[in-house]
Amino acid sequence: MIIEALIAYTFVAALATFLAPDERAGQVAFLLSLVPVVGSLYMWGQYDATGNALLGGDLAFETTIEWLRVAGYTLSWHVGVDGISMPLIVLTTVLTTLSIVSAWTPITDRASQFYGLMLFMEANLLGVFTALDFFLWFVFWEAVLVPMYFLIGVWGGPRRKYAAIKFFVYTNVASLVMFIGFIALVFGLGDSVSSLSLPEIAQALRQEGTLGQFGALTPEALRAVAFAAMFFGFGVKVPIVPVHTWLPDAHVEAPTPVSVMLAGVLLKMGTYALLRFNFTMLPDVAQTYAVPIAAIAVISVIYGAFLAMAQQDLKRIVAYSSVSSMGYVILGLIAYTEYGVGGATFQMVAHGLISGLLFMTVGVIYNATHTRMVGDMSGLADRMPITSGILVAGAFGYMGLPLMAGFAAEFFIFVGSFESAVLPFAPVFTAAAMFGIVIVAGYFLFAMQRTLFGPFRLETDYEITSAPVHDTLPLAVLLLCIIALGVAPELFFGMITDAVTPILNAGGGF
Amino acid sequence: MVPAQWYLMLSAAIFCIGLFGILTRRNALLFLMSVELMLNAANVNFIAFSLQWGNVTGQTFALFTMALAAAEVAIGIGIILVLYRNFRDTDVTKATTMRW
Amino acid sequence: MAGAFDYTPAIVLLPFLSFLLALGVGRSMPKGGALAGIAATGGSLLLSVWAMLAVANGGTYNQTIYTWAAGTGNSFELTFGLLVDPLAAMMLVIVSLIAFLVHVFSLGYMNDEGETGLPRYYAGLGLFTASMLGFVVANNLLMAFMFFELVGLCSWLLIGFWFREEAPPSAAKKAFLVTRFGDYFFLVGVVAVFATFGTAAFAGEGSFPALAEAALAGEAATEINTFGFAPQTWFTVVGLLVLGGVVGKSAQFPLHTWLPDAMEGPTPVSALIHAATMVAAGVYLVARMYGFYALSPTALGIIAFVGGFTALFAATMGVVKREIKQVLAYSTISQYGYMMLALGAGGYIAATFHLMTHAFFKALLFLGAGSVIIAMHHNENMWDMGGLKERMPVTYWTFLAGSLALAGIFPFSGFWSKDEVLYEALAHGLGGTPLLLAAWAMGLLAVFFTGFYTFRMVFLTFHGEPRTDVARDPHGVGWNVKAPLTVLGVLAVVAGFVNMVPVAKLTGAHIEFLHDWLAHGLGGLTSEHYGELTGQFAGYETGYVGSELTTVLLSGALSLGLALAGAGLAYKLYNVPAPVEHTDRLGSVKTLLFNNYYQDEYQVWLADTAARNVARGADKFDQGVIDGVVNGISSVSLFSGSRVRRIQTGVVSNYAALLTLGLVALLLGIGLMGGWFL
User: Fold this and answer.
1) Chain C interface, best mutation among A391, A483, A490, A496, by max C CB count within 10 A
2) Nearest chain C residue (CA) to A308
3) Distance between C226 CA and the closest CA of chain A, angstroms
4) Cβ partners under 8 Å of residue A455, min gap 6
5) Of the candidates C163, C184, C195, which has its C-beta nearest A435's C-beta?
6) pLDDT at position C521
7) What average pLDDT does range C230-258 have in this prediction?
8) Which of A444, B90, C308, C530 is the 20 to 30 A CA-CA neighbour of B13?
């Protein structure tokens, strides 16, 4: 029952924060958000499952309560945690708390509403990562968009309306396409399933002969079309090239804490869903189209990295880097090896922490300098040594410095995809994607050299000083998490691979 | 007993008169009256079928419709008063501020 | 003696501890963390010596100590482990000794000069030492790669130490980027090794060199995935991929361009990183997995060629440089070329030998240059020096010892090792691999240039009349500068005596200690085994001019003669009271050399201009085409919306009419479908 308790608590906490006075809302939200952190860490400590949430085996904290019957399908409150969702839950709670703290400085207007929406988003995110019934999951999935829309549209930068609407419409259209694809599959299954329970549907889809004719579509065609629809729908969220253009706009306009949540957790919804739906339910289609999918992954990596190189805005640099990093996740998923899929899941967490760290650091610099343009400043390390040091550490983490989480994730993915038996020319694709680490190093080093080093130069009418402690403390916490995961990836990797193995094994039947 | 189709023809005639009123009149009061005509056309239908089948469901609905029509008139007159206050006229084609 | 190996992790952890201390509380520590660093590296040195003694007594150590990632255990595990064999033990002592001396020297170079940011400096040194030592004791390729990268990070931190200026951060960036480019290939290689063999262990029965050897010998009992290639072809590919990292870190052509720029860092850092250790990492890696390279004649040939070419190429550039550290930088590149030449030519011992002697004399030369730079108030231009001989005798004599060793003059250490390198290349070249002779010829020619630029540097710096006021009255240096110089000076003289092969061949006395040292150890990692492998798989035979003895003598005489000729020319031209730039007579060749054969230009063009243009193009495409389509779709819907909304006239009668029309249309439609009108 702990999942229900956490979700319900977070909704109540969101409501309480809405009612809190503006000047105290930051602290209230921070204190309230500590409970989910403790709760998720407790869950992690108590975690004892070894199965996959969709394909069977032991699950942790599972509850099923029958809820409604609609058109012959049972809808239930069905939640549970496996090795794929557990790390993401911890990531969600930790990042929410830290980004709430990082909001103390920049958010001054309508504070109680801001923090309330953050908590409201957290509750829905927890729902997305735990729900095992399609209806329930879809409600949470869509409900995440609402707070995000307001967080960008109300507290954002000058073009916030454009960015918020673009984000909302883009992801909502994608959800619609995904929904149609998935429901077509469910109807195609006919009498094989009697509920919208994801495990039931996944297991039915992985058996031969369960899928019937659907309209003009043969079962094979239905699989392919549904796969494509869901791939597009989730791909927008990831985002993969070429449906990524909402991301830089949203990031640039969003306030720092919202960027942290967007890059840190919301993008992971896309990859999480890809793994849960496309790659778990329709492995045969994924494997048939392995080459184009891997090509998309490689293009995302290289193209995203080059886009990042062309940017002058520090936030845009980090935003486009996310496109690049998420390409690695797709590459790992399509490999269908333990290290590939496990590494992809690990990368979700690692990238969540590292991009969160970088966005926060850029935000702290922005708080002090009121500019994010690379060309506007130089020699910042002289005035803000600690923040600069953390930015350096974060950037090197992003470049895949060993003993930081990013390296572990990328190395797992590379090893996994190199030896992939599913993907033709796996070594070529892997080597091509790996070139991303050189480009990433290039633009981060250039950006750091120009902003942090050299003689100090920045035109302000006030003195630039070190950031306040409550700004740098979340950075330090994140950095420690990143190093801890880099030194001991087994903290998560063991449970991830436990959950991933059934996806790889049961690929037979086709 | 009068066959049901006579009632239906009556009802259709009243409905058409009401419809004609709505499409051609510009005075809001006449507009409202035309709407009442159409509602009563529906009532005639209800009653006719109630008589035809010998149950009271249709009559019940007719009573409902009357109550509804009364409420509608109350609101409609209110709207017309506001319309007049704002535009110094009850011509419905003058009040076009809600276009596009 | 197992006790020594139990403390091996401490060799790595002690400097790491000093890193943490300097980073955390360095501000409040005496000397900005220097003392902690000295204590830590001193401790590492003692433990390394202890480990070396244990190895000398026949012990070796190969143990996995930490499972980094295991997954479910169905696939391979990724682990950290320690491997202490004769090669590693030797390298441990070298690295910790030089790190220790550099820490002491830094007291004079950094603390006494009143630098700011000392905790950061000592933290960098500590982390660097820890990473390098971790790299040395790594027992598998993944761990080696990880520490290799950390070494790269530290070089970035230390080269860019003076970050408030323009040049050091730029040089740091270049160093990291160029080596990162090499490391990209290395990483692909590591991944390929895992995918091929399922392990990356260096030593033992199931290690990847052993598996590769078994596969080539036809004992295909092991499951090896060669991705559809013939095993030898695939091993060559993998070997060359890993070699990419080596070429980057060891500054071999064409990835050597970062090293001269890296002289922007503090001079002790140059001594530590760019002379004795980080650059040595590449060569050490090849030596570490020599059992794998020995299987592939193509890879060996490429290593030898790259090495020979780099040796010559860098030596020619060293001839015209004005700054003392620049000369040393190019000599470093050149000397590492020799080591690569030796490795490629099957001279595993020769390469290790040169690695050792070079570490001593090059650290010595850099520290000596640092001493000169202190004296010259941080002016590095040799043309502003002159006549420092009388004013700083300790520095002069030790620097001279290092220079003689670098030039390869009998009987200094560099002579013995360089001679063995060239001898191995010659002997194997004569023995049926004639391509090696070309590499040998380049290496031999480089000896002449080495002699010339080395003594040009010595004479310009120390001899003649002082050419500036500062050189007339130099800044004094303290004990903390002189003591490391003295230690290294002695080593530069005597280190060669551990392996006097020509003397052994002449007299028959058994004095090839290094041969014996490397010949024992873990099975499969001995020089004898490597000799068998190069003979069996690469076809390396030994050939002679006349007899073995005449070849030894001929080779030694040739290299000594050329070195002396170079030194003699320098003596004639520059050992005068007021030397002039004789290299100006080279005309356009000098311009070419001074501009480093325009290597930097094309690399900067590639990394900066070309990459930026691609990036800008991608950005235009992204903003224009991809986002254009997205915005286009939204414009289309907005436009059609603006047209369709015209039916909202605001006239209620129109709405009623539309409603009626709709109803009629609906009725008609239903009627047509339902066949009412038939």
Assistant:
1) A490
2) C615
3) 10
4) A378, A379, C164, C165, C166
5) C184
6) 79
7) 90
8) B90
The pLDDT score that the predictor gives to residue A376 is 86
CB pairs under 8 A between B and C: 34
Enter the pTM of the model: 0.90
Q: Do C69 and A242 touch (CB under 8 A)?
A: no
Interaxial angle between packed helices A85-102 and A338-369, expressed in degrees from 0 to 180 and rounded to the nearest 10: 0
Contact B100 C653 (CB under 8 A): no
- The topology under which CATH files domain B28-90 is Helix Hairpins (1.10.287)
Contact A246 C163 (CB under 8 A): no
Is it the case that residue A510 has pLDDT exceeding 60?
Answer: no
Among A339-343, B7-11, C650-654, the minimum mean pLDDT is found in: C650-654
Unique residue bearing structure tokens 């003591």: C483
Task: Show the tokens assigned to A178.
Answer: 């995904």
Q: Which residues pair with C64 in a beta bridge?
A: C81
Chain C hits for B95, Cβ within 8 Å: 650, 652
Q: Are C391 and C353 in contact (CB under 8 A)?
A: no
Burial (CB count within 10 angstroms: exposed 0-12, middle 13-18, buried 19+), residue C6: exposed
CA distances from C361 to C88, C129, C223, C271 (A): 20, 19, 46, 10
How many A-C residue pairs are in contact by the CB < 8 A criterion? 146
pLDDT tens, position by position, A426-455: 999 999 999 999 999 999 999 999 899 988
Residues of chain C with pLDDT > 70, as a percent, come to 99
Instruction: Give C242's contacts in chain A (Cβ within 8 Å).
Output: none
Express each pLDDT in C101-140 by its tens digit.
Answer: 999 988 888 887 777 888 899 999 999 999 999 999 999 9
Contact C481, C105 (CB under 8 A): yes
Beta bridge partners of A214: A217
- Determine, for residues C648 and B92 on separate chains, whether the beta-carbon distance falls below 8 Å: no
Identity at A474, one-letter amino acid code: P
Plot region of A81 (φ>0 → left; ψ -120 to 50 → alpha; else → beta): beta
- Shortest Cα distance, chain C CAs vs residue B22, angstroms: 7
List pLDDT tens digits, range C486-523.
998 998 888 888 888 888 877 877 778 888 888 887 77
Distance between CA atoms of residues A235 and A171, nearest Å: 10
CB neighbours of C516 closer than 8 A, spacing ≥ 6?
Answer: none
pLDDT over 80 at A155, yes or no: yes
Rounded to a whole number of angstroms, the distance from the CA of B36 to the nearest CA of chain C is: 15
ipTM more than 0.85? yes
Mutate to test the interface with B, among C640, C642, C652, C659 (most CBs of B within 10 A): C652
* Domain limits, chain B: 28-90
Q: Which chains touch A (3 or more CB pairs under 8 A)?
A: C
Cis peptide upstream of residue A242 (ω within 30 degrees of 0): yes
